[in-house]
Design brief:
With about 110 residues, the chain is mostly beta strands. The chain has two helices and nine strands; from the N terminus they run αβββαββββββ. It has a five-stranded antiparallel sheet. A two-stranded antiparallel ribbon has the order 5-6. It has a two-stranded antiparallel sheet with strand order 8-9. Strand 1 and strand 2 form a beta hairpin. The longest helix is centred in the first third of the chain and has 5 residues. The C terminus is likely disordered.
Length: about 110
Amino acid sequence: MQTISWQDFEMVELRVGTLVRVEPFPEARRPAYKVWADFGPELGVRKSSAQITDLYRPEDLVGRQIVAVVNFPPKQIGPIQSEFLLTGFYRPAGAGGIATPAPGGATGPKRG
């Protein structure tokens, strides 16, 4: 495994967004969805694609909060330009689950 420096990691901008639209992406080489996420007033709605069809249906994803990398340069993926990277976790069976923020927000639950 290749390692990165702390400075490399500090350059990655992770943001929480809400999926507002999810559609099939039949033009993709591997099964995928076209996804649009709202990252709030500063970044607005951005689009991408995600290979998550094995675990999720479009109707189950709309309204779900996600964690995404928002400072990669745009990347052309077939007919769409990806504007963020949806983060997830590898599973040995192959399909990966998406990363979501914990209930209580990005800072986690309040402690007494």
